[in-house]
């Protein structure tokens, strides 16, 4: 049996983010001395998941362990990647395909967040320091709720005054709201900790928003910590996810879930009713608000002249 690992990245409109994912994959190959590793993207970039499956099979794979290098399990992880793997199974019925877990809630991710925070702060003054934990945001309430669990653990680990949760889009509270709430609660120093794997459109945009907010509150020190990148802790967690799936200790439940096919049928029906879609991300009805939100983020200023998030009321 020839086993290959297929690492699935999300994909970005910003090629810098895609290159960082590919660098992560190369770091994985080097660190674990495993050349049987291929990479692909769910959307917005190439190679696609089916391209990745093709590449594994072309190199002689008889078993593929697909692992999403994605932080939280929303619809991408629960529905879309399994659909692509189903297509791969149909194309290659003699190749076993196993779907591993995403990064998810992991104790060492809290360690990594704490380390990123510590890189910005040498002396923690608990009554003056707040963390703003910034996530992407999702239409899946479970994924959003997981970020709040992470925030609680980060608060207990760091001993800061408070940890605010905010999102760059899709849901609320938005990033400027998290900053303003921390200021209202008396923070003199705010450290934004992005819960992001790699750079991209949103990271770069939020850095600009933070600069505007710093001008709005000049008496408060504001810094943004680094995202995760190819940190050794993250590489180890992904290795664990690959090993779990390879030995049958843990699979992504959604790959075997009986309800996924019902959900997929629902999304297919929605797709036939809406013909203005351009990529796989747009084929799912529950993503239309996400797409519209992303388009607005790309075409409108992050803040209005009054400093309020566009579309919200102060």
Describe the structure.
It is built from ten helices and eight strands. It is an alpha/beta fold. The protein folds into two domains: 3-104 and 230-261, Rossmann fold; 107-228, Rossmann fold. It has a four-stranded parallel beta sheet with strand order 2-1-3-4, sandwiched between helices. The chain has a four-stranded parallel beta sheet with strand order 6-5-7-8, with helices on both faces. The radius of gyration is 20 Å and the shape is elongated. 42% of the residues are buried.
Helices and strands, with pairings:
Elements: E1 3-9, H1 15-31, E2 37-41, H2 49-58, E3 63-68, H3 75-91, E4 96-99, H4 107-120, E5 129-135, H5 141-158, E6 162-167, H6 175-184, E7 189-194, H7 201-216, E8 221-224, H8 232-247, H9 258-273, H10 288-299
Parallel strand pairs: 1-2, 1-3, 3-4, 5-6, 5-7, 7-8
Brief rundown of the structure:
With 314 residues, this protein is α/β, with parallel strands linked by helices. The chain has 10 helices and 8 strands.
- Mean pLDDT figure: 85
Physical arrangement of strands within the biggest beta sheet: 2-1-3-4
Radius of gyration over C-alpha positions, nearest whole angstrom = 20 Å
Helix/sheet category:
alpha/beta
CATH domain class of the largest domain: Alpha Beta
Low-confidence stretches: 253-261, 269-314
Beta-strand residue percentage: 5-15%
Q: Helix and strand string, N-terminal first?
A: EHEHEHEHEHEHEHEHHH
Tell me the span between the first and last alpha carbons: 61 Å
Examine the secondary-structure arrangement and name the CATH architecture of the largest domain.
Answer: 3-Layer(aba) Sandwich
In total, how many beta strands?
8
What's the number of structural domains?
2
How much helix is in the residues? 40-55%
- Count of helical regions: 10
The biggest sheet, with number of strands, parallel, antiparallel or mixed sense and barrel status, is: 4 strands, parallel
CATH fold description of the largest domain: Rossmann fold
Q: What is the 3D shape?
A: elongated
């Amino acid at each position: 049996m020839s086993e290959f690992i297929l690492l699935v990245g999300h994909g970005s409109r910003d090629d810098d983010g895609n290159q960082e994912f590919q660098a992560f994959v190369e770091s994985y190959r080097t660190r674990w001395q495993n050349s049987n590793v291929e990479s692909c993207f769910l959307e917005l970039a190439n190679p696609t998941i089916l391209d990745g499956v093709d590449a594994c099979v072309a190199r002689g794979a008889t078993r593929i362990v697909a692992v999403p290098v994605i932080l939280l399990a929303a619809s991408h992880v629960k529905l879309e990647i399994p659909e692509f793997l189903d297509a791969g199974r149909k194309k290659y019925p003699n190749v076993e395909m196993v779907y591993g877990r995403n990064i998810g809630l992991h104790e060492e991710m809290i360690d990594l967040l704490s380390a990123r925070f510590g890189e910005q702060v040498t002396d923690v003054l608990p009554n003056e320091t707040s963390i703003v934990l910034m996530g992407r945001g999702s239409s899946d309430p479970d994924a959003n709720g997981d970020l709040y669990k992470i925030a609680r653990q980060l608060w207990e680990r760091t001993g800061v005054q408070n940890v605010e949760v905010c999102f760059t889009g899709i849901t609320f509270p938005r990033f400027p709201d998290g900053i303003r709430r921390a200021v209202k609660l008396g923070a003199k120093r705010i450290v934004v900790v992005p819960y992001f794997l790699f750079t991209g459109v949103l990271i770069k945009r939020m850095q600009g928003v933070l600069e505007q907010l710093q001008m709005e509150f000049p008496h408060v020190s504001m810094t943004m910590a680094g995202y995760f990148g190819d940190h050794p802790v993250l590489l180890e967690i992904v290795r664990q996810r690959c090993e779990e799936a390879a030995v049958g200790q843990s699979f992504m439940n959604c790959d075997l879930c009986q309800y996924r096919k019902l959900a997929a049928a629902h999304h297919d029906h929605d797709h036939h009713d809406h013909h203005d879609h351009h990529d796989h991300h747009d084929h799912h009805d529950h993503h239309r608000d996400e797409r519209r939100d992303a388009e607005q983020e790309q075409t409108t200023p992050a803040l209005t002249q009054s400093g309020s998030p566009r579309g919200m009321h102060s």
